[in-house]
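Long-time lurker, finally posting.

We've been working with Transaldolase (Corynebacterium humireducens NBRC 106098 = DSM 45392) and I want a structural starting point before designing mutants. I don't trust myself to interpret raw outputs, so I'm hoping someone here can both generate the structure tokens and explain anything notable. Sequence follows.
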Amino acid sequence: MTHIDELAALGTSTWLDDLSRDRITSGNLAELIESKSIVGVTTNPAIFAAAMSKGDSYDAQIAELKESGAAVDEAVYAMSVDDVRDACDILLPVYERTGGQDGRVSIEVDPRISADRAATIAQARELWNKVDRPNVMIKIPATPESIPAITDALAEGISVNVTLIFSVARYREVIAAYREGIQQAAEKGLDVSQIHSVASFFVSRLDVEIDRRLEEIGTEEALALRGKAGIANARRAYAVFQEIGRKDLPEGANVQRPLWASTGVKNPDYPATLYVTELAGPETVNTMPEPTIDAVLEQGGLHGDTLSGTADDAQAVFEQLVQVGIDMEDVFAVLEREGVEKFVSSWSELLDSMESRLR
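Top reply, 14 upvotes:
Generated this for you. Predicted structure of Transaldolase:
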């Protein structure tokens, strides 16, 4: 029994935060499922930008797309959809074994349309139909403008990975959007047991931003709080999940599990497994880059359920952060804006690179 298996026994599913054609064609993804107990995959624009800029795995398809006269956006999504569809097929046995909870592969809508509800739901629908696999999840960012599109997608029976959640206040809005979408789906007569969702809460990015501010403040009290905000924030979110995550769902509906994202540590002074061992608990997902997965397998360090019953201590950390001068509202606003901007930048770089290759 590996440490990833132990994590699963605590209630946390481990998904791989990476995908490339090389992983698929070489058998690497299948091997990770078999040997490292990986039960899902998440992608984002930065991941596809990295995958498509390396090696020659996509050359043949690029040549075909060039011959057909495909536009650059169309070409990038054609390749992305093919990768996600193939990954879905590889993970299908996991999906069937877990009743649809795991075995999932996520693909994200274009980050450039995150402020456009109509465009977001239109592309979510398009990606859902193009991948055409029951275990795909469409990633929609939790921006104020896109949250209604989350409800729209769920109401149509589309499984959704809600991404770029930073604050507990926004998370409450996400839970409400999920509840409304599932209720609408039930009213339409859809089988809500087949609709799944996760709420992706970003962890390490919060520590990066707050640690920087704490170091600028420089007092002993401030410096003592470094590395504590990300875990405390996620634990506060988990308390909200336990409080209202199951409320007012139609019969047969699944809960929307919290998913811990951005769990590779950015500060080398922190343990590589920090955002895994301290965020283990029932009905959660942790999507990790492969180095973090390997660190968990090698180091372990799990010490039981580290989520349940932690709300009071987590709230105390936040109160201390405010007391030393951290403006939490500004932190969350900055992170949400930069989160979208970073994905837009990665996507734009990929489009520019692909356009030159298609020409």
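Before you design anything, note these points.
The beta strands are 12-16, 40-41, 104-108, 136-141, 160-165, 197-202, 257-261, 284-288.
The first strand starts at residue 12 and ends at 16.
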